[in-house]
Amino acid sequence: MVKNLTLRQFSDDQFILDKVFYHNCYRLKKLPKSDEVRVIIDIGAHIGIFTLVGLYGGYNKFYCFEPFIENYKVLLKNLEPYDFYSVFNSEVFNTYQLACCRKDWGFNNLIINYPETNKLLNFSNIETENKSKNNCIVPCDNLDNILKNYLSNSIKVKLLKINIGEWEDNILLNCNILSEKVDNICGEIFIDEGFNISEFQEKMKQKGYLKSFVIKNDLQENNSFLFWFSKTDISECFDLEFIKKT
């Protein structure tokens, strides 16, 4: 059971907890004990649920990126009970209020719309100008810069998770150093009509991720897919046998 977890009313926090932690929709395996540094990058960290799945699953160093300030504050609060891990590593949790954006935008801030009340929270509605009082401005950077500027050159990423509501494919495919820095990837993508998920898999294969698996996400009402990519052995980090059998 997670410790002293903060969940907000009138939000999707409970849904995310059930989906990501208890249902383990990303199918993370519990890794065997080891002295090696196992790094997770959590892009779209929300309130820290996936990070906690990774912590309980044997990972021990985390880089969490969440742009929405209300989410970010709860993220910090939910990770606080695990400060005792700092006895072993002074920087287990590295948290940033930052959005991961498309490289072709070329600017340092995004305007994100607050979600409508009583709908699943999706903080990915990006506008190029501030059109209403329901918008907030957040800092942003592309994935290449995140991998270069927020991690030391010696850091090798065991697992990158990305779920920001849109542009996951664009962000991954346009990252020049992705395969150099990251061994395994999982995430969720909301696709529009005409999007070719097989083409996405093939392009990721060309980037070095030879193993892949994609499935329709039945936990979401919209057109959502979960995906997994690995450079070597997809079963090292992910338990996909249950999904394949069902």
Report what the structure shows.
The chain is an alpha/beta fold. It has a domain at 13-180. Helix content is 25%, strand content 24%. The chain contains 8 helices and 11 strands. The strands form 2 sheets. A 7-stranded mixed beta sheet has the order 3-2-1-8-9-11-10, sandwiched between helices. Strands 4-7-5-6 form a 4-stranded mixed beta sheet. Strand 1, helix 2 and strand 2 form a beta-alpha-beta unit. Helix 1 (13-22) packs parallel to helix 2 (49-56). The chain is globular, with a radius of gyration of 17 Å. The protein starts with 12 loop residues before the first helix and ends with a helix.
In brief:
By secondary structure, this protein is an alpha/beta fold.
By secondary-structure content and strand pairing, the structural class works out as: alpha/beta
End-to-end distance: 27 Å
- The fraction of residues assigned to DSSP E strands is 15-25%
Per DSSP, the total helix count is: 8
Order of helices and strands: HEHEHEEEEEHEHHEHEEH
Query: Approximately how much helix is present in the residues?
Result: 10-25%
Largest sheet: 7 strands, mixed
Radius of gyration: 17 Å
Counting DSSP E segments of at least 2 residues, the number of strands comes to 11
Label the overall shape: globular
Low-confidence stretches: 117-132
Q: Name the strands of the widest sheet in spatial order.
A: 3-2-1-8-9-11-10
Instruction: Provide mean pLDDT, rounded.
Output: 86
